[in-house]
Amino acid sequence: MANKRIDEPTGTETVGHEWDGIEELNTPLPRWWLWTFYLTIIFAIGYVIAYPAWPMIDRATVGVLNWSSRGELAKDMSAADQARATVREQLARIPIERLPEESGLMQQAVSGGAAAFRVNCVQCHGSGAAGSQELGYPNLNDDDWLWGGDLKAIEYTLVHGIRQAGNDETRMSVMPPFEGAFDTAQLDALVDHVLSLSGKAETNATGAGIYADNCAACHGPAGEGDRAQGAPTLNDAIWLRGSSREAIKRQILQPRMGMMPQWEGRLDPVTIKMLAAYVHSLGGGEDFVEVAENPEADVDEQP
After folding, report:
1. CA 191/CA 246 separation, integer angstroms
2. What are φ and ψ of residue 264, in 5° steps?
3. All domains of the chain, ordered by start, with CATH?
4. Residue of 24, 105, 182, 263 with fewest CB within 10 Å of its CB?
């Protein structure tokens, strides 16, 4: 302290320390810095009074504004719930075939359906909705539909399912087994003809005759299928059970027919409607035709 003095060149008092002839000046802080520091102190005092600040045993001080992060989260969640409720009310009122007329509502339905799909449908159809040919789960991204691909048809399939016992309105089609009906040469000829319908083999008279007698009544003379009875299209080169000769033979002799649960009673009608909108948006959705007598839905399936 005794070594303090005024530095002549600067007029500033020294702090009394010296290192190798170098003295430290006691330069005052800038006035703007001091005022900023004082303001932060005042702000901190005000914050402690207004907001939760001091931790206690099982909670913190409440603050005169009674604000809390939990309270803000509850408000945000309530607002989000209200917004969702409004959208769901609109979806409940609008007929599904008119949903594309409301582009904003349609987008909301697709987003909600995507979430519902991830919870309820990916186990079979896959996260990308590509299905599994090995397991017989349909690809929902293409434009091949067994019972129709418009919104109303897809919704119907979701509501009533496919081959659901005890539901008279379920999607139902049955292909009879032809095991023992043909000898080896006849079966090979029939497989060739089925492959020829999609350009994968040369046609032959024997196979065409067998097809006309046994298959055309359901699948159509040219393999165009029949949605009214859920008969698959055979001339589009899209196959649910595989397109190899062995896969086709197996499906002719011992047909494999899948099932899909009915979602009525498991999901509410609005969620089903959103699921239908999402599936419709995946790439193969068809326009609704008012005169269609059998509004139906989903699953592409081949022999």
Report:
1. 9
2. -65, 130
3. 1-69 (no CATH), 91-281 (1.10.760.10)
4. 24
Tell me the pTM.
Answer: 0.71
Give CA–CA dist 255/267, Å, rounded. 31
Q: Give CA torsion, residues 76, 77, 82, 87, to 10 deg.
A: 110
State the helix-helix crossing angle for 103-120 and 69-93, rounded to 10 degrees: 110
Phi, psi dihedral angles at 212 (to 5 degrees)? -60, -35
225-278 pLDDT per residue, tens: 999 889 999 999 899 999 999 999 999 999 998 899 999 999 999 999 999 999
pLDDT tens per residue across span 148-201: 999 999 999 999 999 999 999 999 999 999 999 999 999 999 999 999 999 999
